[in-house]
């Protein structure tokens, strides 16, 4: 046997990694059934969900061929205050106006199409940033009872700090004034609350706090914005843990229970 033949005969068979695993080549890369892959989870909005229209971008979408012409909009879902980019029905755009409240129906005659993705606050357009404050003012006034209930029932976080102190502009003095007044008699509406506690402006305080919670994803306490865990679907559903339990053994924190109540 020549030196050349001996060299090739000593190599042995090629390893699986060199040849390529036939099972791997047949299966190919994993694919997401929901579309978009792990990095781009599919989002959807349940029928009956209420959203407020923040901005309309008539040429902001991208179709399957890559043409930027599909109309889209930016909306805010309530009562969780999550932000979405949603496709629009071209035939219904003329019927829409900013700050409009729309119910998701899933029907073909609906002005809203399929939601494309969830948005962060810094992804909002300039028009959306101008509109969102007006929308929040509208929502807070329309849902006055929800926020009055918060003021009447919210309790302490720890021995040294109260949830009222999380609200913008509320320090110890103003907090004590609110607590003393509500102890004598619960508040019935914003006007009465402001009359009895002149230093507290309900509408402005709640709007500012909601915007703070939208802007900062690292806040320790969320009073109104519902921050979903990464494994949650954007519809609001939480996958059941593999062990069959409701919470996977996770203890419910006081902050979690507070969001459920308000």
Question: Can you characterise this structure?
Answer:
This protein has about 260 residues and is α+β, with helices and mostly antiparallel strands. Among the domains are: about 50-120, OB fold (Dihydrolipoamide Acetyltransferase, E2P) (Beta Barrel); about 145-240 and about 250-260, AF1531-like domain (DNA polymerase, domain 1). It is about 35% helix and about 10% strand. It has nine helices and five strands. It has helices at about 5-10, 15-20, 20-25, 125-140, 145-155, 170-185, 190-195, 200-215, 255-260; strands at about 50-55, 70-80, 85-90, 100-105, 110-120. The protein has a five-stranded antiparallel beta sheet. A hairpin with a 4-residue loop joins strand 2 (about 70-80) and strand 3. Helix 4 (about 125-140) crosses helix 5 (about 145-155) and helix 4 (about 125-140) packs across helix 8 (about 200-215). The longest helix has 17 residues, at about 125-140. The radius of gyration is 27 Å and the shape is elongated. It starts with a helix and ends with a helix. The model is unreliable at about 15-40 and about 230-250 (pLDDT under 50).
Radius of gyration: 27 Å
Helix tally? 9
So what's the oligomer here? single chain
**What's the β-strand tally?**
5
CATH topology of the domain at 143-238 and 251-261: DNA polymerase, domain 1
Protein name: DUF655 domain-containing protein
Region (Disordered): 1-42, 229-262
InterPro entries: DUF655, NA-bd_OB-fold
Pfam families: DUF655
State the main characteristics.
262 residues, OB fold (Dihydrolipoamide Acetyltransferase, E2P), alpha+beta, 5 strands, five-stranded antiparallel sheet
């Amino acid at each position: 046997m020549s030196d050349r033949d001996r060299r090739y005969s000593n190599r042995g068979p090629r390893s699986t990694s060199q040849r390529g695993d036939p099972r791997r080549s047949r299966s190919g890369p994993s694919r997401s059934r929901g579309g978009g892959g792990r990095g781009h989870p599919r989002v959807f909005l349940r029928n009956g969900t209420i959203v407020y229209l923040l901005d309309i971008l008539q040429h902001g979408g991208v179709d399957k061929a890559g043409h930027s012409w599909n109309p889209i909009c930016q909306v805010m879902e309530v009562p969780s205050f999550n932000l979405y980019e949603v496709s629009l029905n071209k035939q219904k755009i003329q019927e829409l106006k900013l700050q409009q409240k729309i119910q998701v129906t899933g029907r073909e005659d609906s002005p809203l199409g399929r939601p494309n993705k969830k948005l962060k606050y810094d992804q909002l357009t300039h028009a959306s940033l101008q509109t969102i404050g007006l929308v929040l003012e509208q929502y807070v006034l329309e849902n006055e009872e929800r926020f009055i209930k918060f003021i009447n029932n919210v309790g302490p976080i720890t021995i040294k700090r109260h949830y009222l102190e999380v609200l913008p502009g509320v320090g110890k003095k103003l907090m004590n004034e609110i607590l003393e007044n509500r102890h004598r008699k619960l508040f019935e509406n914003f006007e009465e609350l402001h009359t009895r506690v002149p230093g507290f402006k309900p509408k402005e305080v709640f709007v500012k706090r909601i915007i703070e919670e939208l802007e900062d994803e690292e806040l320790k306490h969320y009073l109104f914005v519902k921050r979903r865990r990464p494994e949650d679907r954007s519809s609001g559903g939480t996958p059941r843990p593999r062990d069959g339990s409701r919470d996977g053994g996770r203890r419910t924190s006081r902050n979690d229970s507070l969001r459920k109540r308000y």
